[in-house]
Amino acid sequence: MFSEFSFALTLRGESERLHDIGIVSLAGRLVLNQLKKHNINPESEFKTIYRKAKPIDIEKWKEAIALEKNTMIESRQIAADLKLNMKIGDVEYQGDKTKAIFYYIADDRVDFRQLIKILADRFHIRIEMKQIGARQEAGRIGGIGSCGRQLCCSTWMSNFVSVTTTAARYQELSLNPQKLAGQCCKLKCCLNYEVDAYIDERKDFPSSEVAIITTNGKAFHQKTDVFRRLMWYTIGDANSLDMIPIPVEKVKEYLEANKRGEKVELDVAAETESNQEKEIDFSQVVGQDSLTRFDNTKRKKKKKKQNRQGRDNNNWRNNRANNENNQDNSVD
């Protein structure tokens, strides 16, 4: 059905006896992949597309889009006057300006029958109220995440999976709510992206709740570097900052020795030196830290150019004087 039209073609479809505008964004095999992703049966019945949109249809559609922001602001004020415990996050007009969908967020059930009557009288359109969650609202509004890219919920995500702090614990992330929360004030969806890899890698890791009994006292676990397979321990005080990195294989050996009733002799200096991270040194390359590194070269070029011009002028004068002398001698 869509293969008969080009990519940027605007169409006019029918939905609930009302007319709307649609734009073809994909064609070919990619359409089947998107239908599979959104769990849509390709053989199911689609909305009727009966003709191409005319310029007057597109103008009306653009006018409807321009009304959405002001409609949202006014509807928020009306809801506040009615003292309804809800937040209207977005408004979406249909292409023919006869119907609008109001997306709202509410913690409890809201009786908005009076609100619908007022909105219908104010805007002279059909009203549809649709409740969404905080993640859906962030996806509709959009924005830039802490990674510097557009929000996943506003670009490619179609379904939202529950996110818990367990995913952050598996990845050894700080349980700081300000860092773990996204723009929706919920836990970031990207916490689930790599958690399976961390779970698979930690299958053979010993329990971090068991302390290692050494000749110097108990060693308590502090943190884990999963992919480097290192576990950091502190001897004596559990809140000490002097942490010792120990490979996972050695931790298993130490715990097995503790089970046999043996105390482990832990060489703090050797363990720290063998597992210490290599520091990345800074090397200055072609004076990259100098803001005036090109100024001297420009001045030299100017001086060279001036010297060339001066030499050319002197040569021209000398040649002219020689020619005049030659002419005088020939006359004589």
Topology:
Elements: E1 10-15, E2 18-23, H1 29-37, E3 49-52, H2 55-81, E4 87-93, E5 99-105, H3 113-123, E6 126-131, H4 134-141, H5 152-155, H6 165-170, H7 177-180, H8 195-201, E7 212-214, E8 217-225, E9 230-235, E10 244-247, H9 248-259, H10 268-274, H11 295-331
Parallel strand pairs: 5-6
Antiparallel strand pairs: 1-2, 1-3, 4-5, 7-8, 8-9, 9-10
Helix pairs in contact: 2-3
Explain the overall architecture.
It contains 11 helices and 10 strands. By secondary structure, it is α+β, with helices and mostly antiparallel strands. A hairpin with a 2-residue loop joins β1 (10-15) and β2. The model is unreliable at 1-9 (pLDDT under 50).
Features:
four-stranded antiparallel beta sheet, three-stranded antiparallel beta sheet, alpha+beta, 40% helix, 17% strand, 332 residues
Radius of gyration from the CA trace? 36 Å
Q: What fraction, in percent, of the residue positions are helical?
A: 25-40%
What does the average pLDDT come to? 80
Distance between the termini: 101 Å
Spatial arrangement of strands, main beta sheet: 7-8-9-10
Largest sheet, in brief, is: 4 strands, antiparallel
Number of helix segments? 11
Global geometry = flat
Number of strands: 10
- Unreliable stretches covering 5 or more consecutive residues: 1-9
* N-to-C order of helices and strands: EEHEHEEHEHHHHHEEEEHHH
Structural class from helices and strands? alpha+beta
> How large a portion of the residues is in β-strands, by DSSP E?
15-25%
